[in-house]
Amino acid sequence: MTFEQHLxxxxxxxxxxxKKCGNRTxxxxxxxKSDQSDAQVxxxxxxxxxNVKRNGGNCYTNEAFIQAEIRVKKMEENILRKARKExxxxxxxxxxxxxxxxxxxEEEDVLRKLREKEENARNIxxxxxxxxxxxxxxxxYIRSWLPF
Length: 148
What we know:
mainly alpha, 78% helix, P-loop_NTPase
């Protein structure tokens, strides 16, 4: 089977890749001894030199480099966008948790203060009753206003 016949049978994705490379291909026989493979190496170097000359002395064309750079920037932007989104979600969850904890602490503080005020009011009332006889005075005052 020739190299061209073999290329005709490769998967579509590989054919597409070869086409993107300007249909430039080179076959290597890996079973050759080092001195026998010299011709293959020379052919590869010639192909590389021709390609570099065609690209104005560069290994890549400016267009290929720009396209690769655009793809890299898009990937970076996607990664940064995902990282920011995750960080914002974590921060939001933390704030919500913190808000709930703070609200619960404030609620407990308000209830504690209310209980303290109730207890103080009871203590003051007991003190007034015990010390000044408030109840008899209050009853006397109320009776003074009653018609009977």
